[in-house]
Batch of 2 targets.
Target 1
Amino acid sequence: MVKISFQPAAPKEEKENDKTEILIPHPAEEEEELVLPLRPKKSPLNGLCCLTFGLVVFMAGLVLASIYVYHYYFIPHIPEENLFHCSVLYEDSAYAPLRGRQELQENVGIYLADNYEKISVPVPHFGGSDPADIIHDFHRRLTAYHDIALDKCYVIELNTTIVMPPRNLWELLINVKKGTYLPQTYIIHEEMVVTGKVHNMRQLGPFIYRLCNGKDTYRLNRRLTHRRVNKRDADDCHRIRHFENTFVVETVICDEA
């Protein structure tokens, strides 16, 4: 506080008793209140809420993963409008003088979204070839043959020089859909040999897994040089004729020597 005194002119004897005092508050001397922030108390409900939220997220992820596995490994995909029933006439130079033109029929499923093809070859009319289901998985770069007569599966790397990609094959079949037969064509031969058994089926992808699960499945290698198969070797070799191009392919699968 600042103290100011006024002293009026008066006789000396009144100076001591006649003083007027005025007190003016000084702002610097005002009392200031210091307010400290209150520290919030931790509630046990916060930890419980975090734990509950974590469990909900974990269970949701587990449910989604289960749906994915069930959808891709146990439920077959239904194509939209990509199923074709095809027939092709071809000539085999080895049998041309005796049989002339031969006919091959098959059902083709093209799955553009999943980038694979499924081919079903029924029992042929002419014999000498086994009925089969074939999958060309362009995502995994694998081909699987299910020999229905033997009930065995064979897996090999996809040969893109022979097998058309799904989009190209789909366009080819769309272009010939108005007719019953593909143009007359020829046949080529490829020979493969069994190299060993497959034990981990899931590494082959969901589409081949559905085709071959529960069946004896073997790895194949291609033989670069074709050898003449004699009668003794014929018992150990099996043929599957199919087409996924403008020509027919005869795949010869032989057991290990």
Target 2
Amino acid sequence: MSSTTLLAMHAEGAMRLAVVGMEPFGCSPLVRALRGTIKCDDEYNNAALSFNSKIKSLMATLGPSLAMKIFYVDIYGLIQDTIENPKKYGFVETSKGCCGSGLDYGQGCKGLPTCANRSKYVYWDAVHFTEEMYKIISEEALKSLMKTLA
């Protein structure tokens, strides 16, 4: 998101905005496979952290000057914690996706077998989260927004 985008939304009448930060995408099954490691990739994760920092700075600068309420939703920390402590969230698999080989994604999963219990996987495919992970993300986002509004 750029300041131009934020200004354009304000010009259209936006007064409240929720911005979701970047995830630690260096932990996605696809990036791990491309890098040839089972560990999260620090270079990719640092890029996500840098982006998140810049977004928060932009929000802090422009929000008050435009009289906009801008809420930041930190999914980076939540997803990182989920990957490091999967049992805490009810997961057993964090390094591969549920469909196909676990490294397929998007339309590449079409017609491929899936895992027996997708609710135990963080990732549906090599880049997208499962419904269960999205549920956790949305619940935490709502809690965060409610605290901000209180």
